[in-house]
């Protein structure tokens, strides 16, 4: 008779258990929400393309100002009505300059990447925009104490290979759009934008995991609206005054603002579930969604490499999230925001296991001491009886 471990049914049950440990509901939820963020990014790209190509409206700061204003109306007002240390006055007293720098970083990152379209090609922007991922991993390593494993580096390389397939499909389909008046300047703006985005995303990950999502969005909305309003008045006041407002332009601007507002609102939620690096990996599919929409809206040419690129990026994203990263130093999260990501749970479980082992060892030592004391007392009683 074969042993139970050697039977086919036992091996299948064991295999299913291992697969269930990998493909959890948490992973599926992270994947689904990450692709939702990509869809919102696609919405901002399509509406911006419409404004630029159909209505010849090139006002990136106006679009950013509307987004930051919406964030301020909702989340900054929520901070005003808070009590205690989470109130906006207490935050401004201690950390105003930090959020000022964060708001400036976020505004200029958005402006630099939009400005780059005037000087370089779409292909260069798609390739160089991936620079955010290695920069973000380096910043997370030093400042957030995140420790990556080999599978994480392999997953990142796989996602970047998917981006390479997407760019190759663009070249083969003849869709290398954009200006090439000053490619060096345009590429430099993309690299600056990617670096600023990496800094902003790292600060966002730290804030939402250790402080509060509402605090991050409220302060970014406050300082972002102020900075973008000043920059709008300086750089784009002529373009804004020349706009001939129609209901179509207003509707497209509203669609862009709602997509960007939804992206900013839900991105901290996904970052808290995984990490900023994982979110940026999922956002690599945003360009693909834009290309798929362009097949119907802008008469792009379809290529089978788009499907290959989408599958490769998704596989790399799943690989990255199947194994948790390790965080060596994490501050306790606030009561409002709940628990940390998988890595924190892994670290907490490990720590709890060590505490349990130490407790058990101490209990055994106490039991042995009590037994020795009982024996010694028994010997004393016997000796006293003999005497």
Provide the succession of SSEs: HHHHHHEHHHHHHHHEH
Helix/strand/pairing category: mainly alpha
Number of strands: 2
Seen as an oligomer or otherwise, the chain set is single chain
- Give the termini distance in whole angstroms: 68 Å
Function: Putative solute transporter.
Protein name: Solute carrier family 35 member F2
Keywords: Membrane, Transmembrane, Transmembrane helix, Transport
Transmembrane segments: 30-53, 65-84, 125-144, 151-171, 183-202, 214-235, 247-266, 278-298, 304-323
Written account of the structure:
By secondary structure, the protein is mainly α. It has one domain (12-328). Helix content is 78%, strand content 1%. It is built from 15 helices and two strands. A two-stranded antiparallel ribbon has the order 1-2. The radius of gyration is 28 Å and the shape is globular. The N and C termini lie far apart (68 Å). The relative contact order is 0.15. Mean pLDDT is 77; it is low at 329-361 and 375-387. Putative solute transporter. GO terms for molecular function: transmembrane transporter activity. InterPro entries: EmrE-like (IPR037185), SLC35_F1/F2/F6 (IPR009262), SLC35F_Transporter (IPR052221). It comes from Sinocyclocheilus grahami (Dianchi golden-line fish). The chain crosses the membrane at residues 30-53, 65-84, 125-144, 151-171, 183-202, 214-235, 247-266, 278-298, 304-323.
